[in-house]
Amino acid sequence: MTRQTRLSPPQSSGQAAARITVFASLIVCTPTAWAATREGASSEPASPWRLGAEIELEYESERNFNLDSGDDENEAVFAPQLNLDASYRPSPKLQGFVRLEWTREYGVSGPEADTGAARLDLAEAYLASEEIALPAGGELALYLGRRLFRDERQWLQDEQLDGLTIRYDYNAWSLSLSATRQRDKDLLNHNDVDKTDNLYAYGQYDFQDRVLGAYLLKRREREGGEGRPLFIGIRSYGEIVNTTDYWLEMAVVRGHDGADSIRGWGFDSGIVYHFDAPLSPSLILGYAIGSGDNNPEDGVDHAFRQTGLQDNEHEQGGLMDFPYLGVTLEPELSNLSVLTTGIGFLPHERISIQLLYHQYRQQHASDTLRDSNLDADPNGVDQDLGYGVDLAIGAELTDTIEIEALAGLFQPGDAFEDDSDSALFFGTKFEYKF
Fold first, then answer.
1. Is the dihedral of CA 392, 397, 400, 401 positive or negative?
2. Residue ranges of domains in the chain
């Protein structure tokens, strides 16, 4: 359940909200293409064109994200969205694709309840040449333009980027090289957003039901060039045995942030164990940690930070993606450890229920969180940030109708003021495809 851009201007601590989403997907084919899909009509050539549309209606709300129920900053936003797709494939090895996303936000309640400006984003626009056989063996694929880059757990990236990607596949091995730029593509408004260049290399080996990968990601801010982190990491995920899924992310970050050198490390791992019992119960256990910096004045920043392209969302053995480090806090993994335990159920093959508990603790007491949804800062004395509880329910009513519900609570710990109140999140999503 990916959250939308907030109505109010973004703040350094980030913000979250609950939402109700109605999603409709319409695939429109030309008469020739439609005829080719019917039994007995396969002799007619299919049209190389595919057109599609999606409609999303979203409602977002939040309560006490400043941890002060006496200061009424609760907020609710309604945001309709229309997505249009066009794909042209003149041959099996060549494709062009364009995706436009129109959205507008309407404040329903809160101190800044008003109507935001409409956006028309060029979400994707690329040319792809795939399955290019090489004399030495294997196949090559080329992608040029704006594409969505997303990894399995969105731990590294979930972002639309402009650039060139070359991918080489040989049996169970694959290697991707990308040179991209992150920038805003709102066609209706000029947004002065800093651009960032990225160089990305990723190698992967698939074996049985497991994946092993390694990557290198170099980022550079174009305005001023103060942020120049280099991420080097390995990952693995899949099945240990038929009853157990696992994930593992390990990374170090080097480079420079202004005048400071960066020397951080991060780790995220866990398992989902599925029991052979009524309601198909599962046990979820995860631990994530990002290093902190105990001496901000020595010119070396030992705090880990994520790429800035990440979303940290996955289904955790269920049917819906959601923020697996906590729905309400939704933190970046920096100077932080997160212990997660949970249980899940599949009472039906189309229904999943998951209940998760998160314990948050800073590595070194600090009066800032690198990024989170809270509008409150810790005291810089205590390391105990608090705990969170999440409930995620997903239901695939039919092949075309899905319903999701997501609720979260964050209870602040000793690192916040004694009279701090709980922060609450709730959202639902209804999805219809036709």
1. negative
2. 18-433
Specify the residue for token string 């119960």. 281
What pLDDT is attached to residue 94?
Answer: 97
How is residue 29 written in tokens?
A: 């084919």
Instruction: Return the H-helix or E-strand segment holding 266.
Output: strand 264-274
Separation CA 178–CA 228 (nearest Å): 17
Q: Which fold has domain 18-433?
A: Porin (2.40.160)
Pair 387, 409: CB distance under 8 Å: no
For 313, list phi and psi in degrees, rounded to 5: -130, 140
What's the pLDDT score for residue 42?
47
Please tell me the predicted confidence (pLDDT) of residue 226. Answer: 74
For residue 419, the tally of other CB atoms under 10 A from its CB is 10
Mean pLDDT of 325-343: 97
Segment (H or E) for 34? helix 31-37
**Other beta carbons less than 10 A from residue 159's beta carbon:** 19
Sign (positive/negative) of CA torsion 88, 90, 95, 96? negative
- Residue 225 backbone dihedrals phi, psi, to 5 degrees: 60, 25
Q: What is the pLDDT of residues 148-198, one digit of tens each?
A: 999 999 999 999 999 999 999 999 999 999 999 999 999 998 877 778 999
